[in-house]
Amino acid sequence: MAYNGRSSSRAYKGLFQTLFNVGTSSPRFLHSCPALLIQNILKFRRDKPTDQLYRALDQCDVDLNHHLVLDVLQRHRSDWRPAHVFFNWSKTAGYEPSSDVCNEILDILGKMQRFQELHQVLDEMSNREGLVDEKMFATLLRRFVGAHKVDDAIQLFRRRKEFGLESGSEAFRTLLMWLCRFKHVEEAETLFHNVMKKKGFSADIKTWNVILNGWCVLGNVHEAKRVWRDIVASPCKPDVFTYATFIKALTKKGKLGMALRLFRGMLDKGCKPDVVICNCIIDALCFKKRIPEALEIFRDMSGRGCEPNVATYNSLIKYMCKIRRMEKVYELVDEMERRNGSCLPNVVTYCCLLKSLKEPGEVHEVLGRMERNGCSMNDDVYNLVLRLYMKWDDEDGVRKTWEEMERSGWGPDRRSYTIMIHEHFEKGRVKDVVRYFEEMVAKGMVPEPRTEKLVSSLNIRVKGRTEKQEDVEEERTGL
């Protein structure tokens, strides 16, 4: 195979002309982006036999290097066959894959669940010393467990020494983490106990935390309690992460009493809670309308060396807006602005303020404050403002918001049209309902089922509704 010389260059240009109908007057264009040209060759001959693809690639006058090979593979992250063909061809062309390149092809094959091809690549790699690193190993575990091939993932872990990798506690935690992340918590815990007994790994608190977090993420508080008791009974003692994990799970399940007991027990044992733990407790207390207790914990945070962040303030502001304690709300917002840094109000803060407004004139004050603090508008804020103006029936506010969304590029999106359609329907404006629905469909947006149902109930033929939608409606009404 030749990669230089006039003959191969002419052949490649001829191939390029055939595929893309491009003249040869601009050689610079032909070679300006080799990865793009290879991508197009693979794309237009995707279904051809492998040997034909190899012949087409053989005619490329390109310098195969790590950057180019990686670029081509990354362009095919969701299309395994061209990536695999190109990877194999590059090796026949004399290219020796780097660790990053091998990691990329393994990730692509794993993502598409092409495990036979993945094992072939992996077996070839095992013959080269030092090629498999921790990043690649984590990728393999993630793809095996993500496809629920738990046994394969465990077997791979047992091959670590074959790849020149140590089999220590950190590597074992990585395996357990991926098992738990893909909801194989029971298998992870069984493996955890078996390995601790057979291999003599030290059961440190970090490894226990992985198992506890797995049950907590699943929402299984019963199993989480059992693991908590096992941790307390073990030589390991809970750390801040252990407390944070369990307290967060308890508050999510509404078990505030138990969470508070843990929180207070933590303080009694001299273990300082971090901001995550305090935020969980404050948010749960606010949800139960126990605002004074939440404020007490909030005020004590700084004294314990735990500074509040924007999430702390947002929890208090959200619930105080609901009970209309607006004087206290704006006192907290002023405090956030004075603290600056991690306490500066964000989009969530301003959305809480906007939702509490009673009349159109107040919107500009909140948005002005938002702009002064350097908080940018986004689609959530625009759609909230649009909904408010529609609720207040403020046509001028609706028009200006709609135009600003178009200018800024933040919409109008499907939510915007849904708001307009449903609010106009509530106000009895059928023509406006139809107009916005037709415009929405014309832009290629798929209406929400409730919106489709609403428009169908009007018994009006609407432009843009597909024949299938009309047939479904006729079948439903029996016409």
From TrEMBL:
Q: Which UniProt keywords apply?
A: Repeat
Extract the NCBIfam families matched here. Answer: PPR
Highest taxon listed in the record's lineage: Eukaryota
Q: Which PROSITE patterns does the UniProt record give?
A: PPR (PS51375)
Question: Per its UniProt record, what InterPro entries does this chain match?
Answer: PPR_rpt (IPR002885), TPR-like_helical_dom_sf (IPR011990)
Q: What is this protein called?
A: Pentatricopeptide repeat-containing protein At3g15200
Species of origin: Vigna radiata var. radiata
Swiss-Prot/TrEMBL PPR repeat ranges: 133-167, 168-203, 204-238, 239-273, 274-308, 309-343, 378-412, 413-447
One Pfam family hit: PPR_3
